[in-house]
Amino acid sequence: MTIRLVLLGPPGAGKGTQARQLAAAYAVTHVSTGEIFRGHLEDNTAIGRRIEQYMAAGALVPDDLTWEVVASRLGAIGSAGFLLDGFPRTLVQARALEDWLERTGRRLTAAVNLAVDDEVLVERLAARRMCPRCGEIVNDALRRRTAGPVCSRPDCPDEAAWLRRADDDEATVRQRLRVYHLMTAPLIGFYRERGLLHTVSGCDTPNDVLERIKSILSCAGGGE
Ligand code: AMP
Fold first, then answer.
1. Which of 34, 37, 64, 133 is deepest in the core (most CB within 10 A)?
2. DSSP letter (8 states) at residue 182
3. 137 phi, psi to nearest 5 deg
4. Per-residue pLDDT for the chain (224 aa), expressed as one digit of tens each?
5. pTM of whole model > 0.85?
């Protein structure tokens, strides 16, 4: 069975970390709207210039522009599987996705909600760093406590080169959390009503979270 998964959850819940592992495990395309938008900012594209102000303020990019970007990715993926990370983030986006799935005769396998308390997220995001080469996300505070590796690939640069996302400062994180509760949390009910919702605690170790999601997918018919 082809996996088509929506990963829901507040900023910092671990969607990106899980999405990378799951995409590799199930050989499906990882679509992260945040990453796509950051790519446009870096490349200073026309879209990049339109979204800059929203991203810097921790606000959502308008639905029509977001859907335009996602629809073109989904079109390119065709009938293969995908994993949506950071999309949908509003009911309008969720309905646009639902319409597209209906029009193309496809179904979502599941919507997995990673649940984490706000104060834990603020602390986590303050310590979040990203490997500029492979994109792996590391928690600096945790890494120092456990003396773990910077990232899993031996040829990646050392910690002097880690990046901190511009929107991970505390004021912007709190704004992103307000936006999440107002605009994105209602999607939990949306997917529950459709019988697709599964909630997993995002406070467990990344490996435990991954195993939980894999077992959800295998019950939904999409496991290994
Ligand atoms: P993320 O990397 O998922 O935390 O996204 C970073 C930023 O990109 C968000 O704070 C928004 O400004 C923008 N963004 C990402 N995904 C969406 C989306 N589905 N709808 C609107 N804005 C988005």
1. 37
2. I
3. -100, 130
4. 789 999 999 999 999 999 999 999 999 999 999 999 999 999 999 999 999 999 999 999 999 999 999 999 999 998 999 999 999 999 999 999 999 999 999 999 999 999 999 999 998 888 888 888 877 777 766 565 555 555 667 777 777 778 888 888 899 999 999 999 999 999 999 999 999 999 999 999 889 999 999 999 998 854 44
5. yes
How many Å apart are CA 74 and CA 68, to the nearest integer? 10
In 14-64, the DSSP E strands lie at 29-32
Give 86 Cα–ligand 1 centroid separation in angstroms: 6
218 Cβ neighbours under 8 A, 6+ residues apart = 224
Q: What is the C-alpha end-to-end distance of the chain, expressed in Å? A: 9
Measuring from each residue's beta carbon to the nearest atom of ligand 1, which residues come in under 6 Å? 11, 33-34, 37, 54-55, 58-61, 66, 86-87, 89, 93, 167, 176
Distance, in Å, from the CA atom of 108 to the CA atom of 83, rounded to the nearest integer, reads: 10
| 28: number of Cβ within 10 Å | 21
Q: How far is the CA of 200 from the centre of ligand 1 (A)?
A: 21
Give me the amino acid identity at 60. Answer: L
